Amino acid sequence: MMDRLPAAPQALRARRSPTGTTAVGNPCPGSAPGRALRTAALLLALLTPALLPAQVQDGVIGRGEYPFRAEFKGGDFILHWNVAGDRAAFAMEAETPGWVSIGFEPTAVMENADMIVGWVDGQGKVFVLDCFSTGMFGPHPPDTDLGGTEDIISYGGSETGGRTVIEFLRPLTSRDPYDRNLPPSGGVDVIWAFGGTDNFENIHAAAGSGSINLASGDSRTRRGGPFLPLHASAMALALLLMAVAAGVARFLRKKTWWLRTHRPLGIAAGVLAAGGLASALVFVGSAGGPHLRVLHAWVGLGALAAAFSAPFLGHGFLKSRKNKPLLRTLHHRAGWAAASLMALAAVLGLRLVGLL
After folding, report:
1. How confident is the model at residue 229 (pLDDT cuts 50, 70, 90)?
2. In-domain check, residue 60
3. What does the alpha-carbon distance between residue 216 and residue 321 come to, in Å, rounded to a whole number?
4. Hey, is 296 helix, strand or coil?
5. 295 pLDDT band (50/70/90 cuts)?
6. Of 145, 202, 207, 241, which is most buried by a Cβ count within 10 Å?
């Protein structure tokens, strides 16, 4: 466990004894320095209970140590907390031998979240980082890498039977621009996650979001649902069908069945693209973020427009007696534009979530 306390006055500063214990100088009791020392010691003793919570960040959650707790994912991740004065003590416990994390006050998915990440390595050494998420899906470097400060006052951790506990003490308010101030009597939006290994750069094994009230202990889970994987699956399948439809029209036009195959493939691709867009809207909305704020979203919207227009242009080409050359050209271009934009959106999406 690490503990950082404000530096004591000069007369109280400890010195290291030869045995490794901490010793304090002992001026003559009757001298002026002695009286100053006794006065300062008395003030420190009186003020310490008001400044420090009762918790000790040792990685062990004692009975009654925290008055509040919130369970997420059926108890796979539990957050405990207690507010005392201008500080808040938290404990994270999760069903994992790897890293655990909590993020405070994200603005969209993970973006701008004040994050604490911790783990216990194979030798029992505890690591805790004060981080900040710079994007909707990361990255989340330590505050110090961004020019901020390390503001964790103390921490501890343990790992037993595949369950990790990380405790930490932090101030409610900070001058670090990469910390989020926590209201002592209000609600706080949180995101949580844990991984299967000690490498917190690896993708998480589980994650979620919700809110807690530091004063009342109320909590709720934000139901994001499986909309992100549904979005990715629908768009990937739409891209595949659009590519196959274009290939049939380009290379198999001499077959008698090419049109009966090409048309339903193109229509199915448009329907899947619409489903992918709907799942993306639900996911971003449930995560509290604004829509259409990244390039991936705009490219995906363009792909959807092209995917919808291609079948209509093709139907017009087949049924119209006028402007057939123009409608055919527009149909071809819309189809290839849809496939190309879907592919670009897929690449941008993979980069957005950190897989590329």
Report:
1. confident
2. no
3. 71
4. helix
5. confident
6. 241
